[in-house]
Write a structure and sequence with these properties.
The structure holds 2 protein chains of 2 kinds. Chain A is of the alpha+beta class. Chain A contains 17 helices and 27 strands. In chain A, strand 13 and strand 14 form a beta hairpin. Chain A starts with 18 loop residues before the first helix and ends in an 8-residue tail after the last helix. By secondary structure, chain B is an alpha+beta fold. In chain B, strands 4-5-8-6-7 form a 5-stranded antiparallel β-sheet. In chain B, strands 9-10-11-12 form a 4-stranded antiparallel β-sheet. Chain B has a 3-stranded parallel β-sheet with strand order 1-3-2, with helices on one face. In chain B, a hairpin with a 2-residue loop joins strand 10 and strand 11. The radius of gyration of chain B is 19 Å and the shape is globular. In chain B, 57% of the residues are buried. The chains are: A alpha+beta, B alpha+beta. At the A-B interface, helix 3 and helix 17 of A face helix 13 of B.
Chain lengths: 757, 333
Amino acid sequence: MTTTGNAPAVGAGMDRVDGRLKVTGAARFSAEMPAEGLVHAVLVQSTVPAGRITRLDTAAARKAPGVLAVMTHLDAPKLPQKGRAAVNPPAGRVMTLLQDATVRYNGQPIAVVVADTFEHARDAAALVRARYDTRAATLDPRAAMGHARPPKQHGPPDPRRAPDSTRGDVPAGLAQAEVTVEETYTTPIENHNPMEPHATIARWDGDELTLYDATQYVMGDRDTVAKTLGIPSGKARVVSLFVGGGFGCKGSVWSHVPLAAMAARRVGRPVKLVLSRRQMFGPVGARPLTIQRLTLGATRDGALTAVRHHSVSHTSTFEDFLEPTANVTRMLYACPNVETRMRVVPLDVGTPTFQRAPGEATGTFALESAMDELAVKLGMDPLELRLRNYAEEEPQGHLPWSSKSLRQCYGAAAERFGWKRRDPKPGSMRAGDELVGWGMATATYPTNRRPAEALARLAPDGRGGVTALVRSATQDIGTGTYTIMTQIAADALGLPPGRVRFELGDSRFPPSPVSGGSMTAASTGSAVFEAARAARNELVRLATADPRSPLSGARPEDVRAENGRLFLASDDSKGERYEALLARHGGPVEGRASSEPGEEKEQFAMHAFGAVFVEARVDPDLGRVRIPRIVAAYSAGKFLNAKTARSQLMGGVVWGLGMALFEETLLDPRSGRVVNADLAEYHVPVNADVGEVDIILLDEEDPHVNPIGAKGIGEIGITGASAAVANAVWHATGVRVRDLPITLDKLLAAPAGGAEA
Amino acid sequence: MHPFEYSAAPDIPSALRAAGADPHARFVAGGTTLIDLMKLDVETPSRVVDINTLAARHPELGRVVPLPDGGLRLGALVRNSDLAWDAAVRERYPVLSQALLAGASGQLRNMATTGGNLLQRTRCWYFRDPATPCNKREPGTGCSALHGHNRIHAVLGTSAHCIATHPSDMAVALAALDAVVRIQGARGERGVPLGEFYLQPGAHPERETVLSSGELITAVDLPALPWARRSTYLKVRDRASYAFALASAAVALDLGGGLIRDARVALGGVGTVPWRSREAERALEGKRAGAEAFRAAADAALRGAVPHHENGFKLPLARRTLVRALATAAAMA
């Protein structure tokens, strides 16, 4: 496509531009940022789930070596609206900021100890003693089901958070059904556990606050902290250059961030506050547990006549967070009669939060397990059942899809997997002494986009060349944002990627949205594309208007820009290099863009889709499950970087495997404390648990979603994956586990789980 | 973590002196248990005596050496990785090598030592959380696991005061092999058979071994057992690596003409101590090696097991694990 033979950067599997920094340890994460005179803070947490602090003995802690301050509810600064000035659910959380003596959950911050070293702060924190007037706590969601209610609605109505939906007539559809499935599926509390814990350094310079914070949203972080503390946004700055994973838990500001700022102000020095692994369980959100009742009705030929999805997830007593499990049920299959209902049940725990594909990860487990059960009852191939109910248009709002290649995903993954060799009878396939099971499920995630801005600046590099500096206040949470933005800018600027430097993670840059909802590529990528194109257009304008340029007088639309050179499309010998043009121009050339979604949202339904096929091997005596092989195909618009895309999708699939087999936060039913609060006892997959994961990328041309044609890929990988594992385990064993995780005890306990030894 | 005195001991007598002077002293070798628990405020020693430095003066502490009777002496400071890959151990006591490699992770095995592994503390969730009652951590406060989450807890050797599982894989193999723990104290040296080294919780779960304050493990002796070449370790857990056993079995079989002449059986993941089952061994002896004898042995091993509300599955799981391990050993060349 180019006269100079340069392949576009976008789409290529380019190595991460920050890869070298990461593997050499040169990348600075928030807790590693330098700050002169830095001191250290440690949180003291409540040890009861509900009640009031009646006495807080801090004398020993205050006298401990190196201690500079012990801040409690008795002496913490009083914040505007008791610390709730920035509350804006679902992302602006109700924090616990030492404003009163109330204890709302076990693990709530009740004091902050600041000392000259981390060790001194930690030692002193252990000396703080609290006494409580406790009240009976509600901790068992099943016992509290009577209190389930619709979540409180805040702000303008958002269909994604509407607790109820109805289309058609479900009772009539069920009456018409020849086969029905009605089952309850449950998923446990799951904690995010990014490798990098939450970490904040707070520094005051006069009345200006700088936060180095592990966050998925520097702009939101800045605004939330400023509002909470009662300072103007302009007086706060958030910097977050590298984030060691977020997965949703770093999408909101939690209590420790303002507390670090309050502590820094108290001691008059920069304060570092890093949560311990144990503190990652409780005060910083978790995926709520879900209890989902699915009812499917179908005719003998597999056409769905009715779908009912009633779901309850837990929340805290002081804030409603809804896990929107049923959203996926509203859009995935063409069924005329669908009713969904989502409720929350408040418990005396910390508020749960977004976790990778909130709603879709849990909802697809229930829906895609139920679809598998329906296929079994119908005696129909599970893939055939999905195709039988393929939604050619978005079934809830009857909008056309901006693009949808799910049929191709099913086909490509099934072919690669060898699905047609599957014997439908459970327990029929064996490899040696092990049972073999094959299961599949559909994956989907909505394509989101929010307004974003970017700046692109071309300037001489001082060595006879030209480089571009491109900036936006987005984040790289390990997904590859630095790399894909570099690729997008390089192509739009007509420069090789090595001549583009992309900077992010600073709230002083042009604003970008949260790195959540799989929307960074679509939102910030579009802004970067448009800013870079504006800079390129400015170059072309300068050249064509410059009598000294070989392109003088040419029409701008006839000029191309590639590899740092402008030239006529019709005659590439006529042109000049950027450095020559900039040298005459005498200064940098800038492009700025503000990019936002338009009418397309009303005209099209926009989703990424995929299909995941799983092989399970089960030891029939011991109940051990292994997953040697997964094949998954995804269509998500344009894949901007084949390598980082594959990593993202593979990571999602592996998370789905972990969700299916391992992950479960155990809350003590008496104390509300998480008992397995470390990475030895909270199990995520290790390398030995993951076999071959074959990811197929099916590129789509989607002119509607956004200027770069990319749908998000950060979350879709986890969707459907846990159901595909569960379906494969059923196929291997005949045991249907509807309560995640599928641990071996559940296979041993089931009557068909093998004869008693 | 609380402040503590640290000293590195140049030789065994000074190590014993340093620890003997302070009832709240702890030795540290690999540190994989102690340091972890100090960070959690579960272990709060006032003095930590580093014994890694002993190997300079006492090289045998870091070596595996043959014993005159055909056995092996495993130095207390031999790292788990080195022990697992020791040629003599792999050839003559495969059950021990396999048990070591089934434990922890590569990084932890590179640090953890023979002596330290014997003394690793339970993974009971409540023991590790100082904000919850625990008779082992704070005698008399009660057992949170009895009526709390106890899926990972013990079904053998429990008491009304404690149901915490002993976490070691290595010690299960050593129990099967009749290993002898060599201990030095101020009053000299003694050898304690592994079967007598650990104490079941009873009314005093805080006492886990017969070690007295200030005593130091210097070695573990493996008696000669030529037929231990036919031995194996099977560990069943929630994920493929870096997880503690839900059930494990260390077995060795002495076969002749299809009959079991002698057998060794120990279970892990189900006992409050590494669980040697002489009942299972008796059920095997003289029987024809096969499913019937293995099932009878498994029944004998689990007889008297007491399940709690979340860990009842451990009874069938441990039985099946033992049956599988015995079948594997019987099929060895």
